[in-house]
From TrEMBL:
E.C. code: 1.11.1.6
Family membership noted in the UniProt record: Belongs to the catalase family. HPII subfamily.
InterPro entries for this protein: Catalase, Catalase_clade2, Catalase_clade2_helical, Catalase_core, Catalase_haem_BS, Catalase_immune_responsive, Catalase_large_C, Catalase_sf
A GO molecular-function descriptor: metal ion binding
UniProt-recorded name of the protein: Catalase
Keyword set, alphabetical order: Heme, Hydrogen peroxide, Iron, Metal-binding, Oxidoreductase, Peroxidase
GO process annotations (BP): hydrogen peroxide catabolic process; response to oxidative stress
Root EC class: oxidoreductase
Cellular component terms per the entry's GO annotation: cytosol
Record field: catalytic activity: 2 H2O2 = O2 + 2 H2O
Cofactor(s) this protein cannot do without: heme
Keyword Cytoplasm: no
Length: 668
């Protein structure tokens, strides 16, 4: 969806696909670009070669410092539109006018790894959204998990130092399965809730398009009358919340380290635009202290059963970036970029981020004018008395650059609140200056227990295995013992299940939180399940009935399913039935289900391995064979859930299985 504001964002481009002559950055046309200027054919290069100097200097400075965290990311453009006015809660223009279409730019990322790390590592995912509103840019900078590891921003550098590759050997990359991370967790029990999320399937999403987003912190919405509500922001994916299994995530890391990037890019290019609904949890100012947790604690969530999520609008991503560096890499997000009607709370982690993010951009993007980079520019006019600085790209006119002034009639002048000027919420503060933690932040384990209680049995089993894997990679007995001791406060059976395989002692005393309270919204078991935009591998052996196969592919297209035909070798058949991938280039971990169709009396080993892995990963499997006895050498049980014999089942049954996703009841 294009509008004037979206067009404005696209005006800062240079199209090198159009016919242009080669020039220097100063616009000088160049007749030669392959050879430097020399004194004679075999003589020394001359320093007067301005074209060589400019080209090499630019090359030497092409890389900017990567983000310390969230270094590996991918971005896309889109738009947001409101369902109905929220004027009872906020005066923010883009949240009160349902007719407005607000351009957005979203950057997804992993946290721990460098720019060159893998997409499918076990990690938190960043979910940062820049709204280009008529009142200025608003950045909603969050994660795919609603809580965080620490409560106070002063501990954030310590957490990052602990989770990053260990400084003595720069190992491991893109992983938390090492001693310093788990040492930090054992020494900081406030991390108990967040580490449960990270060891759950939420840390290995199937797709960025199938991932929730959370603002993490408590913010405020303030309406035109000055009334305040505390708010938590949610992004709910229209496709539902889905994950990989751990073995699958590891295989994908080797087969396609750009799996999530490619999935997002390809979906947008196909016109299968990802969508999320924006949800708000709202608490009136006067109800701040009515809950059994502190609503300002960033290690706590607001259970949706107690504070429902109100769905207020939809975001659609419909355009890929034109240049990764210029847009995705230079995008500067900051939770302090707010507009009138949105304000902050006293969440101590949020308060620290309000400093840190600007400080980071100054280092990464070369100075205080990073807001003038096209991807960061607001679409509304901006005027102030800030001048000069590195990378100043605006030619300011006028004699004065200060406030107040008389020479320019006091301009630019502050805007009254009644005319849209920003005013912070006037909260009454009364207290002593102190370094410390509020007593209301001291419950570290109740919500960790709530999260674990809320998971389906198969999800709980995955959590146990994740802890066992991560702690099993640790070398320090102290670190492992402390981590198990932490789990002993959450769930005794979980602590026992982890302690056994890693050889750590189980504490003698059971300190588990005694609670059977659940929040069903925390489990992915009941999420939205659609076949839309999922991917199928059609494994084709021999010369099967192509008419039948064509009918099936038509059914896949009708359900917006993507398919790839895999065979032993590439060969040319009329589209869409030609083999486009081989067993060397494709892998079952890259697909949501597999259809094996064969006209042969035997199945080659690579094809058997293909369906065995699909079965092992609990994914749907369809079979169209001369005789199912050809599978006698395969470790596939054809009578298990999610296995469809297409001589007896319809293709629709298989499509329904793709929508279902996984068949956890399957006996492997």
């Amino acid at each position: 969806m294009e509008n004037k504001k979206t067009e404005q964002l696209r005006n800062f481009t240079v199209n090198n696909e159009e016919k242009h002559g080669l020039t220097t950055n100063q616009g000088v046309k160049m007749a030669e670009d392959e050879f430097s200027l020399k004194a004679g054919q075999r003589g020394p290069t001359l320093m007067e070669d301005f074209h060589f100097r400019e080209k090499m200097t630019h090359f030497d400075h092409e890389r900017i410092p990567e983000r310390i965290v969230h270094a590996r990311g991918v971005g896309a453009h889109g738009y947001f539109q409101l369902y109905e006015s929220l004027e009872d809660y906020t005066k923010a223009d883009f949240l009160t006018d349902p007719s407005k279409v607000t351009p957005v730019f979203v950057r997804f990322s992993t946290v721990q790894g460098s720019r060159g790390s893998n997409d499918t590592v076990r990690d938190v995912r960043g979910f940062a959204t820049k709204f280009y509103t008529d009142e200025g840019n608003y950045d909603l900078v969050g994660n795919n998990m609603p809580v965080f590891f620490v409560q106070d921003a002063i501990k954030f550098p310590d957490f990052v130092h602990a989770v990053k590759p260990e400084p003595h050997n720069e190992i491991p990359q893109g992983a938390s399965a090492h001693d310093t991370f788990w040492d930090f967790i054992g020494q900081n029990p406030e991390s108990a809730h967040m580490v449960m999320w990270v060891m759950s399937d939420r840390a290995i999403p199937r797709s960025l398009r199938m991932m929730e987003g959370f603002g993490v912190h408590t913010f405020r919405l303030v309406n035109a009358a000055g009334r305040s509500h505390f708010v938590k922001f949610h992004w709910k994916p229209v496709l539902g919340v889905h994950s990989l299994v751990w073995d699958e995530a590891q295989k994908i890391a080797g087969k396609n380290p750009d799996f999530h990037r490619e999935d997002l890019y390809d979906a947008i290019e196909r016109g299968q635009f990802p969508e999320w609904e924006l949800g708000l949890q709202l608490i009136p100012e006067e109800d701040e202290h009515k809950f059994d947790f502190d609503i300002l604690d960033p290690t706590k969530l607001w259970p949706e059963e107690e504070i429902p999520v109100k769905l207020v609008g939809k975001m659609t991503l419909n355009r890929n970036v034109s240049n990764f560096f210029a847009e995705t890499e230079q995008a500067a997000f900051h939770p302090g970029h707010v507009v009138p009607g949105i304000d902050f709370s006293n969440d101590p982690l949020l308060q620290g981020r309000l400093f840190s993010y600007t400080d980071t951009q100054l280092s990464r993007l070369g100075g205080p004018n990073f807001h003038q980079i096209p991807i960061n520019r607001p679409v509304c006019p901006f005027h102030n008395n800030q001048r000069d600085g590195m990378h100043q790209m605006t030619i300011h006119q006028g004699q004065t650059s200060y406030h107040r002034n008389g020479l320019n009639a006091g301009l630019p002048a502050p805007v009254p609140v009644e005319q849209g000027g920003y005013e912070h919420y006037q909260e009454k503060i009364d207290g002593r200056k102190i370094r410390g933690r509020s007593d209301s932040f001291l419950d570290f384990y109740s919500q960790a227990k709530l999260f674990y209680n809320s998971l389906a049995p198969y999800e709980q089993e995955h959590v146990k295995k994740a802890f066992s894997f991560e702690l099993g990679k640790c070398k320090s007995e102290l670190v492992k013992a402390n981590a198990v001791a932490l789990l002993n406060h959450i769930d005794r059976s979980l602590a026992q299940a982890v302690a056994d395989p890693i050889g750590a002692p189980l504490p003698a005393e059971n300190l588990e939180v005694k609670s059977d309270k659940k929040s069903p919204a925390l489990s992915m078991a009941d999420t939205v399940r659609k076949p839309d935009t999922k991917s199928i591998a059609i494994v084709r052996i021999g010369d099967p009935d192509l008419e039948r196969l064509a009918d099936w592919t038509m059914a896949f297209n009708e359900h917006r399913l993507n398919y790839t035909i895999v065979g032993e070798k590439l060969h040319d058949l009329p589209n869409p039935l030609k083999v486009t991938a081989t067993f060397d280039t494709a892998d079952p971990a890259l697909f949501d289900g597999v259809l094996l169709i064969s006209s042969e009396p035997s199945i080659p080993t690579p094809a058997l391995e293909f369906i065995e892995m699909t079965f092992k990963h609990y994914k749907p499997l369809a079979l169209a064979l001369l005789d199912n006895r050809v599978l006698k050498k395969a470790r596939v049980k054809t009578d298990e859930a999610g296995v469809y014999d297409l001589s007896a089942s319809t293709i629709q049954a298989f499509i329904n299985g793709i929508a279902q996703g996984r068949f956890w009841e399957r006996k492997l």
